[in-house]
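Re: beginner question about structure tokens

> Can someone show what the tokenized structure looks like for a real chain? I only ever see the sequence side.

Sure, here's an example I had lying around. Input first:
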Amino acid sequence: MGEFLPVLPIFAVLFLIVIFIFFWFVPVGLWIAAVAAGVPLRIFELIGMRLRRVNPNVIVRALISSHKAGLTVSTPDLEAHYLAGGNVLNVVSALIAADKARNISLDFAQAAAIDLAGRDVFEAVQISVNPRVITTPSITALALDGVELITTVRITVRTFINRLVGGAGEETIIARVGEGIISAIGASDTYEDVLENPDIISKTVLDRGLDAGTAFEILSIDIADVNVGKNIGAELQAEQAEADLVVAQAKAEERRALAVARKQEMTASVQEKRAQVVEAEASVPRALADAFREGNLDITPINQGE
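And the corresponding structure tokens:
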């Protein structure tokens, strides 16, 4: 009898291991929680989830949440979305939020597609209910008079559920609004016109329909701040005047150099002619001497009395 006593603890440990594996593989606790919540779920479905490598805890929580919210979501749809790598609980939360909002049409297939596209579908529903305000970075633009204006804009947007899949994000909205602001300011005659009526910027930008093709609908564009920067036009004119002055000085120096060269050329020509005259004057006495020597020159005085 004493030989079998050491074997009993081993059997006890093995029994506990078997019990643990059984209750892990057969999630009886989840099944009881689902039944208690009124979710029509069979325990064999939970066992099938284990075999399909689906986390039954996530599926049961999603089923209980949707059932309590009065929504009907099928278990196979939840499993398929889980196996596709989607966030099941986030999708169900988005469906519940959309249903409570009353004015948002969103079904499971659409919510799952949005989630698989990499967007936070629950956050998208929240933004659709409570619009978000996007503050742009400082945008610099020039009016026609060359004065620089630095503006900051607040864009109020609401999620466009039907364009979440394939629609552009916030970066596109900010870029388009910045482009519209630069165009609106650039079309103003003076910077004072913009300072007097800053709403011309928002009206011009809103009329362009900048939310086309994006996942958002622009509700309003508000000018948060407008500051006057540098007078770029005056700086450019000053730089141009300085450049013109340098060019004029260069041309004047060129003309002066030409005049000096011409003067030197004329001086050299005069000196050359003087040398020729001196040479000609020096040749006269020699010519007279040669003529006298050869007898070609008569130096007999003329008798004035005759």
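Each token stands for a local structural state, so reading them left to right follows the chain. The mean pLDDT is 79.
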